[in-house]
Amino acid sequence: MYSCIIVDDEEESIQQIEDYIPYIPSLHLERSYLDPVKAIKGLYKLEKPVDFLFIDVVMPVISGLTLAKLIAHKVNYLVIVTAHAKYAYESWEVNAVQFIHKPYNFTRFQRAVTSIFDKLAIEKPSMMMKMSPQNMRRKKVFLDDIIAIEAADHYVKMHTTKGMIMRKYKLSDVEQELAGFYNFQRASRFFIVNTRHIEAMDQFVLHLSKCMKVAYTDAYRDDFKHYRFGF
Questions:
Q1: Dihedral sign of CA atoms 31, 228, 187, 211 in order
Q2: What's the CATH number of domain 2-119, 3.90.180.10, 3.40.50.12280, 1.50.10.10, 3.40.50.2300?
Q3: pTM, whole model, 2 decimals?
Q4: What is the C-alpha separation between 42 and 33, in angstroms, rounded?
Q5: CATH 3.40.50.410 at 126-230, yes or no
Q6: What is the pLDDT of residues 156-201, one digit of tens each?
């Protein structure tokens, strides 16, 4: 998991990122700061650098750009999040790896973070699936390739970008293996979907990659509220 800290003088802006982070696999929120001065003190106390710092630019007492220079040694990947597009060039001067212009939605936030992972060539998360209950041999499946996982009697069908994998598993066992990867969400009793592959959605159906459609039920509707707002 990659640690994250948010610094912004607006509670609404902090809340937006706090709501989004759990839906990005491998990210974990450590703390948020409304006061940039307290943020500097907190960052200086860190024993090791925080992985991701999401920071606003225009704040009282000290700007986000100045703050970024002061704590550069305590941050691995700096992400500027601001309503002022004019600061884009200066963001690169303080070695920001991404610039997110307010207002933005979850889709834009996810794209920015994913692009950082791609640039840094971070090992893609994967799971090892047993070939069969009797066979101890396992097959590596990259999580980003999984579109949806479907329960089919005593089997699961794993729909991926490279085809379909069918194994003798319980859907609940697969769900347990995916615990912590918040981009995998239950859509119904029979389906788990990878939210990265949601291309569109209407009142009852998720439209996924490879023209796949999955109905989602009322019991899980709230889990997809951020994605509804993103389209």
A1: negative
A2: 3.40.50.2300
A3: 0.57
A4: 9
A5: no
A6: 999 999 899 988 888 998 998 887 677 788 999 999 999 888 888 8
